[in-house]
Amino acid sequence: MRPLKTYQIPSSDGTRLYVQETGNPSGRPVLFIHGYSQCRLAWNKQLHSNLADDLRLVVMDIRGHGLSDKPVDAYVDSRLWADDIQAVIQALNLKQPILSGWSYGGVIICDYIQFYGEDQIGGTHLVSAVTRLGEPVMPFLGKAFVDCIPGFFSTDAETSSKALQTFMHICAYGEPKPEDYYFFLGYNTIVPPYVRQGLFSRTLNYDDLLTRLRKPVLITHGIKDEIVLHQMSEHNAHLLPGARFSSYPDVGHAPFWEATERFNQELCEFAVSLPVAVG
C-alpha cells in the first residue's frame, strides 16, 4: 500500500480542508470530490488500487464533512465551493487535473467551472452526479431518497439516524455488505444536520454551463440508482453530445464501490486519452 500524504488547506474564507494524496507524483492528477454527507473515505477502492501506479490520486473532505472544518453558515455561496477546489489545485500544484465528482460533487465541479473556467483542468468526470439543486433537480431524485430529506435536517438523534440508515441501504443496488454499511454510516453520522441542510439550501440549474464545456467529459452512472436517477445523466449526456457516457447495469448510486474494476479501468482510460498536461 502506498503512503498517504495529508494536508490541511485553507480556503478563501479560512475554512480548512482536509486533503490526502497518493499515487504517481508524475501522473495525471485526479481530484475526487465526494457527495452529500459523505467523506474522502468513499474513494478508498480507488486510492488503494493500481490506479496509483499511473495517476496522482487526491481526495478531499468537502467543507462540513469528514475532517474538514464545519462552519455554521458557509454552504450557500457557490463562490466558496469554487474557491475550495481552487485552493486544493493551487496548494498541491495540480497540473490539468481531472475533477471526478460523485453525486453532489457534480454541482461543486460546476461551481468551480462557473468561476474559474476550464483552463486549469484536463477534464471532468461526473459520477452519478447532479448538476442542479432545489426544485430543478427534484424530477431526477428517487422517491426513497426524497423521503429521507426531512430526517437529514433533524437534530433528534433517532430521527436523523433512521434517515441515514435508509440512505445507506439505498446507496447500493441490493443489500450492502455489513462492513460496508457500517463504514459508510459512520462517516455520514459525523456530518452535522446544519451542514446537510445548508447543502440543500441552494437552487440552481447548470444546464447552460454544461452546453459550453469544451474539455473532455466522462459520465458514469448506475442504472439501478435510487438516489440520483439515471435520467439525470441521460439529460446531461444530451447536453454534452461529445461526452463518454458509461452506464452500469445492476449498479446503484456508487459505481466506484460496486463495480470497482470497471470504474477504475474506465477512469484510467479516460485519463490516458487526455492531452498531455503542460506547465
Name its key features.
single chain, 12 helices, 10 strands, alpha/beta, 8-stranded mixed sheet, two-stranded antiparallel sheet, globular, Rossmann fold, 279 residues
Provide structural commentary:
- This protein is of the alpha/beta class and 279 residues long.
- It has one domain: Alpha/Beta hydrolase fold, catalytic domain (Rossmann fold, 3-Layer(aba) Sandwich), CATH 3.40.50.1820.
- Helices cover 40% and strands 18% of the residues.
- An eight-stranded mixed beta sheet has the order 1-2-4-3-5-6-9-10, with helices on both faces.
- A hairpin with a 5-residue loop joins strand 1 and strand 2.
- Helix 6 crosses helix 7.
- The longest helix has 15 residues.
Q: What is this structure's SSE topology?
A:
Elements: E1 5-10, E2 16-23, E3 28-33, H1 44-47, H2 51-54, E4 55-60, H3 78-91, E5 98-102, H4 105-116, E6 123-127, E7 132-133, H5 143-153, H6 157-171, H7 178-189, H8 193-199, E8 204-205, H9 207-211, E9 217-222, H10 230-239, E10 244-248, H11 255-258, H12 260-273
Parallel strand pairs: 3-4, 3-5, 5-6, 6-9, 9-10
Antiparallel strand pairs: 1-2, 2-4, 7-8
Helix pairs in contact: 3-4, 5-6, 6-7
